[in-house]
Amino acid sequence: MSKNEFALAFNEVLEEKQLSKEIILGAIESAMASAYRRAVNASAAQHVEAKIDPETGKALIFAEKEVVEDVLEPKTEVLLEEARKANPEAQLGDMVVVETTPADFGRVAAQTARQVIQQRIREAERSNQMQYFERQVGEIVSGVVQATNAQVTTLGLDMKAEGILPANQRIPGERFRQHERVRAVVLEVKDGSRGPQIILSRGHRNFLRRLLENEVPEIYHGVVEIRAIAREPGARAKVAVMATQAGVDPVGACVGIKGVRIQAIVRELHDEKIDIIQWDQDPVVYISKAISPARVNGVYVTEAEGNKTATVVVSEDQLSLAIGRDGQNARLAAKLTGWRIDIKSITEAAGDAIQKLQSDPMFAEMLPAAVELIPAVEEILAKKAENRPVTPEEYVSLSQFVDRVEKRTIRIKEEAARAEEQTTESQLDIPTAAFGMSLEQVGIKEHTLNILIEAGYDTVGSLMTIFKTDPNRVLGLPGIGPKAMQNIEETLAALSFPESPSAETTIEPTTEVEAQPEPAAEGATTEETKTPAKKEARKAVEEEDDDRAKDGVSLEELFAMKPEIFQTAGGEDESGDKKKGKKGKKKTTVLEFDEDRGEVVSRKKHKRGDDDFDGDE
User: Fold this and answer.
1) What percent of the chain has pLDDT over 70?
2) Do 435 and 336 fall into the same domain?
3) Which domain holds residue 116?
4) Residues 458, 546: one domain?
5) Residue of 549, 544, 563, 557 whose CA lies nearest to 617
6) Could you give the dihedral angle defined by the CA atoms of residues 268, 274, 278 and 284, in that order, rounded to the nearest 10 degrees?
7) Predicted pLDDT at 139
8) Mean residue pLDDT across the chain
């Protein structure tokens, strides 16, 4: 083969297989060495290597041989003269690598190496496919349908790879035709015996997430953030979004003008209904929006021992809409918010409220006003049971009655939980200062910190309490694993709390100035008490300034004063103890308003030296 022919063929293989030059050359050289071993039946212990000239394609074989005087075995021995051509310092008995390319190696070696080269190229292709699609996990890929049946659909992907779309990952009811182009998200990549096994999905919630990122630029650029997705493929999905910048409407951005953005996604998902709601930090508001399109009368949330339960009260005509077909709307709202949702009609909730009041005398004593309303509420419920018309005003009365009873119930539970928590805290001997320390200050890793704050553990004290009482509740949080638990445990163990922080903030009054300000209050901050002497000196100067503000000199005279006057006063403030020990008194300027003269005048106190001035200036 000529130089040009080999170079063209070599470059063609590189382009077709999408492999690097080094991989192809390494595969060919390894195959040539294997072919030589087979041709001469060389020992596996003998070092053999092949070199390929990429320009001409000429193959050279180098083998390790022993230097001898007479060659008995050409495969493993070489004469001293031949050895010194490769290594001038070779001596008898040395092992030298010399060229041993057989005369008829060209055609025989090529045929022997062909299978090995093809195998190496296939392995390199699979390795590249594996690396490429492992990076694509969670991303949307596009493929052409190669074969489809009831169990699985096979798609041809980039890099000559094949993806598998199982029946349980398809959108129910959709059918594919051969050679149709289909989009799906890469769910998982496994290393199989015949190359990477790429599992695709169109029913996973991440498929909807990526479609929204593609259609809504605000989500792609981070202006709008997707907080949660609940999806039942082919039927309905709920997406909670929030804006990361002020002035942005997250729901409007996702829906688009006249719904053009969301309609493109709906078509891709075969008319799957999509509800876009705005995420809210307040669970009451969030759950109210999650129940949409139904209108909610009231949401009452209770959280005890990790069980988050929300009772949603709706009017009679909204009950079926809130629950949805086969409970779908309520089920998706529960998935989206992470709360267990119990939906009641207003009449059912009113009946339950009456039962609470009548079955618990102590509870009834706490709500005397609600007890007085029971007869009126029972009358309204009786009218409803007899299918007599109920006025809007009567529905409002029911709603107010339920609201009063439910809120009082929640308050009682919260107080009981708080009392129990305080008892637990006292038993666990957790420092009080821990409950005033934010969790962001202690150095927990950012990912773990965000999960803990989202779960409601925003102070060191609350985290220490749950960590000592029931650490499994922390471990059960999504995204918290053994390493995160170890990080939390080490961080909490390294913390120390001062025994009496208020004692350090006490300031004793100094005696350097005659008119001494009041001692510092008990609640003075640490920063104000770091240098008591300087702080008190500063307060003394400020007090003198306040005195001067009452009287003082005119502006012209004030600017005409010598700077030394103020420097002397400042010097005495800084070192008042020393100077007062010598003189026993200190010059103070008193500023007063002279009504006769109609201006502020300066009068001196405690004569001292030639700098003092008598009377008014």
Assistant:
1) 74
2) no
3) 3-127
4) no
5) 557
6) -150
7) 93
8) 77
